[in-house]
Design goal:
Blueprint lengths: L2 H6 L3 H15 L19 E4 L4 E9 L3 H8 L5 H13 L5 E11 L4 H18 L2 E9 L8 E11 L14 E6 L8 H7 L14 H6 L6 H8 L5 E6 L16 E3 L8 H10 L3 H7 L4 E7 L4 H8 L7 E7 L5 E2 L1
Parallel strand pairs: 3-4, 8-11
Antiparallel strand pairs: 1-2, 2-5, 3-5, 6-9, 6-10, 7-9, 8-10
Helix pairs in contact: 4-5, 6-9
């Protein structure tokens, strides 16, 4: 992946290899009893069996280098929304209802005013997602960190016979896209490198660039839960983060996807591509390009699903269909 991203300091190939190295050890864990895991590695969230009928969904993620931008702007009241979003949007991908999140905050020295602002965002995100944040951890790590790091761990509940893995997806199914609110919380190392010559108060995008880049990650929980509770046959759910629409390939089906009617690309992505000389292919690998979430439904239920989703996102639409070309993303 990504020549420009590598030049900006992020190697996806090294990250993938490092995750695999970590998993080599984790797969050998012996808990002293039968494993509760019901899904293999690679899904958006893990699911553990509680009692053979109910499952506990688990996910963890952070805000990433978007926090560098927040520090440049000295604005901390939105990054908490990003932290919640990155976690709950993953948990709902397995069909689970998120119920709570814990936060982990690392700083050089605790600053009550900063924490008050971070807390505002965490509260706003929690209320949008319908979850609680019953606790967390604040660590003062001046010898390790020189800024703010913000991470969450989310739990949700799901009936084991209702877990969505993508294993029922078949050619002809409809892929429905939900619009993103911007970059969300991925690709900021490349975005900041590409845009470093433009002042954060530049308004060529209609409002200050810094505000555009700090736009909080969209939270899709309520829309997706409504879809799951509808009559539509929901076969796959994908949070579109780093990797772009390639995230559809994380679903558990030997299929491909043809994206023939993508959602509009917001101008901020066009600016990043132009300023950073980033190819269309690499932009699609690093960013969501305007589509933050995908729902795969049976072809016969496309209109039912759109009716439900458009109550939340008027611009939701079918962006493509499932194909028999396993492992491919085409347009």
């Amino acid at each position: 992946m990504s020549d420009a991203y590598a030049r900006a300091g992020v190697s996806q190939s090294h990250a993938d290899a490092s995750v695999e190295a970590l998993l080599e050890s984790l797969r050998k864990i012996d808990p002293g009893h039968d494993s509760r895991q019901t899904l293999g590695a690679g899904h958006y969230a893990s699911v553990l069996s509680l009692d053979g009928e109910r499952g506990l969904a688990l996910s963890t993620d952070g805000v990433g280098t978007k926090l560098v931008l927040a520090e440049q702007m000295q604005r901390w009241d939105t990054v908490g929304i990003d932290c919640v979003a990155m976690n709950v949007n993953d948990v709902i991908c397995v069909g689970a209802e998120p119920i709570a999140m814990l936060d982990y905050i690392a700083v050089p020295v605790a600053d009550p005013e900063m924490m008050r602002e971070v807390g505002k965002g965490l509260r706003a995100g929690a209320e949008r997602a319908g979850i609680e944040i019953p606790g967390g951890e604040l660590a003062q790590l001046g010898e390790i960190v020189n800024g703010l790091d913000l991470v969450g761990a989310c739990v949700g509940l799901v009936d084991l016979d209702a877990v969505v893995t993508g294993n029922s997806i078949e050619p002809g199914d409809a892929v429905i896209g939900l619009p993103s609110s911007g970059l969300h919380s991925n690709g900021y190392t490349l975005a900041r490198k590409a845009l470093e010559g433009i002042p954060l108060d530049d308004e060529r995008l209609g409002r200050p660039l810094g505000e555009v880049l700090l736009e909080p990650t969209e939270i899709y929980v309520r829309a997706v839960l409504d879809l799951l509770r509808s009559d539509a046959d929901v076969r796959g759910l994908a949070h579109i983060t780093s990797g772009g629409l390639g995230n559809l390939l994380r679903l558990d089906a030997e299929v491909g996807y043809e994206i023939d009617d993508p959602l509009p690309v917001p101008p901020v992505f066009e600016l990043i591509a132009a300023q950073g000389s980033v190819s269309d292919e690499e932009m699609g690998e690093v960013f969501n390009m305007g589509c933050g979430y995908c729902c795969v439904v049976a072809a016969a239920d496309e209109q039912t699903a759109l009716t439900v989703l458009r109550r939340h996102y008027a611009k939701a639409r079918r962006i493509g269909r499932v194909t028999g070309a396993a492992g491919s993303i085409g347009s």
